[in-house]
Amino acid sequence: MAAIPVFRQCARRRPGLTILMITTTMSAFKVLENDLPCGVLHQFCPVDTPAAIDAFLCYWKPSAVILLESELWPNLIMVSSTKGVSWALPLISLMLSKFALIIPLSTTQAIRFQLLQAPPSIINFAGDLKYVVEHDMSKRNIASTEDLKEQPSDRHVWMAASVHRGEEQVILAVHRLLVRRYPDLVTIIVPRHLQLAHHIVEELQKEGLHVALRSRKQKITARGLVYMVDTLGELRHLYSLTPIALVGGSFCPGFAGHNISEAAAAGCAVLTGFHVGHFSHMINEMQRLDPL
């Protein structure tokens, strides 16, 4: 989603520009397909082999390539560097020297690029694109969220977003505690991956909890209900339903956190765990301005 404002700025400044966006997964495409600006084309990323990449570039003939939140292919180079293989650093240095511009999120990232021998002259700061994601909503999204707003209008609501496997137990424990004090509670759960939704629903039903599924358009009616969002591309719009948002992917070792700016922009009080990875710079900045 952070790429959308970039596309719109490019289109404003260069009306005749053709933009080709590539993604590596179907789920990423599903999230973006309804929000791509007019004139932006989409393709799936080719397999990272010399023949496939050469054929792809020869066909599309791009003038420039921008990598957003993407691995530096081939993965072999990055994995080798972590294992101390001696030839990895020269190859990374050669690869980074081909970039015209590198925009790190923080000073720490800039230092890491320099340690990988990226030319200092091409490293510049421009802020985090996650802060500039536009929050305009299509009529379809407005209608769907407005419909949901009316359902729990007089009830206590909180949301757990981007939940990973293992974190559902944390959410369940919090739900049990809160429902004792607020019997009319609605807990909204948005799994990070759709395939996790079925697993969480089974766990909740084993506990005897009422569960409503977003994909089946089930209503928020029962007291102490859990509303499972088993659909794609709606998270940033759903934040408007709740005053409190817990952002997952942060409660178990090995996790690296997720974007909290969308929840904050919607006016939510934001909660997160300790395992936030490279999102620590965003969290530190928000704590400085308005503590989480």
Model description:
The chain is an alpha/beta fold and 292 residues long. It has 2 domains: 3-132, 3-Layer(aba) Sandwich (Rossmann fold); 139-289, 3-Layer(aba) Sandwich (Rossmann fold). It has 12 helices and 8 strands. The protein has helices at residues 3-13, 26-32, 50-60, 75-82, 88-96, 107-115, 139-150, 168-181, 194-206, 235-238, 261-265, 280-289, and strands spanning 19-23, 40-44, 157-163, 186-191, 211-213, 225-228, 244-247, 269-272. The strands form 2 sheets. Strands 5-6-4-3-7-8 form a 6-stranded parallel beta sheet, with helices on one face. It has a two-stranded parallel sheet with strand order 1-2. The two termini are 23 Å apart.
Question: Secondary-structure map with pairings?
Answer:
Blueprint: H1 3-13, E1 19-23, H2 26-32, E2 40-44, H3 50-60, H4 75-82, H5 88-96, H6 107-115, H7 139-150, E3 157-163, H8 168-181, E4 186-191, H9 194-206, E5 211-213, E6 225-228, H10 235-238, E7 244-247, H11 261-265, E8 269-272, H12 280-289
Parallel strand pairs: 1-2, 3-4, 3-7, 4-6, 5-6, 7-8
Catalytic activity: lipid IVA (E. coli) + CMP-3-deoxy-beta-D-manno-octulosonate = alpha-Kdo-(2->6)-lipid IVA (E. coli) + CMP + H(+)
Protein name: lipid IVA 3-deoxy-D-manno-octulosonic acid transferase
Domain 3-deoxy-D-manno-octulosonic-acid transferase N-terminal: 2-88
Spans of at least 5 consecutive residues with low confidence? 75-83
Please give the order of strands in the largest beta sheet: 5-6-4-3-7-8
How many domains? The number is 2
Rg is: 21 Å
CATH 4th-level superfamily of the largest domain? Glycogen Phosphorylase B
Average of pLDDT: 79
The N- and C-terminal alpha carbons lie at a distance of 23 Å
Shape: globular
The assigned CATH architecture of the largest domain is 3-Layer(aba) Sandwich
Give me the count of strands. Answer: 8
Strand portion, in percent? 5-15%
Enumerate how many helices there are, as a single number. Answer: 12
CATH-defined topology of the largest domain: Rossmann fold
List the secondary-structure elements in sequence, H or E: HEHEHHHHHEHEHEEHEHEH
CATH class of the largest domain: Alpha Beta
